[in-house]
């Protein structure tokens, strides 16, 4: 068992683009914490206790909405129920305006050694458009406060192709980001997910999507600047200084087993995937009754395993390990990849099939044609 993911489904306010499960009902935080402690106890059995845990990742929602005492209760339950490696990677996602000196110091004392800060942009207007609750100066202050508190592994999130973003504002965002020297940067193109407020605004004509040409230019500029700064582009949306890749997220891309805790969290053990209910009230109710809050369980077919291996592999620096595929699958994949090998979007090196720098720009579309 490589890792544990904990979904903290609370936000002070909702970002317009987000389609992750979350709620602003702060009154449910305390009963949620009690329910999560119960789920940890119920999950503490094989196969989830078969191996030492190497990574613990707290996502959301906004995990930094929890108080240090609430975090401590959950950390204590995890350590009591699972064998967690002494050098495990402990990551927590946080909003910039939650990161006070005392809060960061409490995180360090609880054992968190990696901080993922949701900055998204260093342009106040862009932040207001997507309903982020911090400004650019608060974002810079948060990184500095984290540094002063002893965090030496900091990741920041950025988004490009935001409404009203320009080439110059994106370049300034990157300049301000790299000036803070974060060990890791995750950068995503804005997506218009169904049923989000952002999509409804676009459908009503109140905001305009950026053209694909802008996305490509923004992505190329980002990749070029970060490469020159010494970052490894190790996954389509992720960049890290050597030695600072996200161990937890890398385990997902390599299909390593993990346990998901909290509403909407997914778990994976070969070749079975399951998910908890995406409803915090139902989650609490289920655990108060002594039942695991499982929404569904599915077994992956050999074809689904193959497709997932190719899809995840092509998004990473290493690419797909062809030696790990069956002969028929390997032959079929290389045949379907032939047009992209011919135009340089994909590369066949030794026993791997991987995307070129330009291929990464189009990788989702390429993957869709390979099956």
TrEMBL record:
**Swiss-Prot/TrEMBL keywords:** 4Fe-4S, Chaperone, Cytoplasm, Heme, Iron, Iron-sulfur, Metal-binding, S-adenosyl-L-methionine
Name all Radical SAM core domain ranges.
1-232
Q: What is its main location?
A: cytoplasm
Please give the Gene3D superfamilies that the UniProt record associates with this protein.
tm_1862 like domain
Compartments in which it is found: Cytoplasm
Q: What does this protein do?
A: Probably acts as a heme chaperone, transferring heme to an unknown acceptor. Binds one molecule of heme per monomer, possibly covalently. Binds 1 [4Fe-4S] cluster. The cluster is coordinated with 3 cysteines and an exchangeable S-adenosyl-L-methionine.
Q: What is this protein called?
A: Heme chaperone HemW
Originating species: Porphyromonas miyakawae
Lineage of the species this protein comes from = Bacteria, Pseudomonadati, Bacteroidota, Bacteroidia, Bacteroidales
């Amino acid at each position: 068992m490589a890792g544990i993911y904990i979904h903290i489904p609370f936000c002070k306010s909702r970002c317009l683009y987000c389609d992750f499960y979350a709620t602003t009902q702060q009154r449910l935080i305390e009963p949620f914490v009690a329910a999560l402690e119960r789920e940890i106890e119920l999950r503490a059995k094989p196969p989830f206790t078969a191996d030492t845990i190497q990574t613990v990742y707290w996502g959301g929602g906004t995990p930094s909405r929890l108080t240090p005492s609430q975090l401590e209760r959950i950390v204590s339950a995890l350590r009591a129920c699972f064998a967690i490696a002494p050098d495990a990677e402990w990551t927590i996602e946080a909003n910039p305006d939650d990161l006070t000196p005392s809060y960061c110091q409490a995180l360090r004392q609880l054992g968190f050694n990696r901080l993922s800060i949701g900055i998204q942009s260093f342009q106040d207007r862009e932040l207001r458009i997507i309903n982020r609750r911090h400004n650019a100066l608060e974002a810079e202050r948060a990184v500095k406060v984290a540094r002063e508190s002893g965090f030496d592994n900091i990741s920041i999130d950025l988004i490009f192709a935001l409404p009203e973003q320009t080439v110059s504002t994106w370049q300034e965002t990157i300049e301000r980001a790299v000036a803070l020297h974060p060990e890791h940067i995750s950068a995503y193109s804005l997506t218009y997910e169904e049923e989000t407020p952002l999509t409804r605004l676009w459908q009503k004509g109140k905001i305009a999507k950026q053209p694909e040409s802008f996305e490509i230019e923004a992505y190329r500029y980002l990749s070029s600047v970060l490469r020159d700064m010494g970052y490894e582009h190790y996954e389509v949306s992720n960049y890290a200084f050597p030695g600072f890749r996200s161990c937890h997220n890398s385990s997902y891309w390599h299909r390593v087993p993990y346990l998901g805790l909290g509403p909407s969290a997914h778990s994976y053990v070969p070749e079975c995937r399951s998910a908890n209910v995406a409803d915090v009230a139902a989650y609490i109710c289920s655990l108060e009754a002594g039942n695991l809050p499982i929404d569904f369980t599915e077994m992956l077919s050999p074809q689904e395993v193959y497709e997932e291996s190719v899809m995840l592999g092509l998004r990473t620096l290493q690419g797909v390990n062809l030696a790990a595929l069956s002969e028929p699958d390997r032959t079929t994949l290389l045949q379907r990849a032939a047009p992209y090998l011919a135009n340089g979007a994909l590369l066949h090196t030794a026993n791997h099939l991987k995307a070129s720098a330009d291929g990464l720009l189009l990788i989702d579309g390429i993957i869709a044609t390979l099956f």
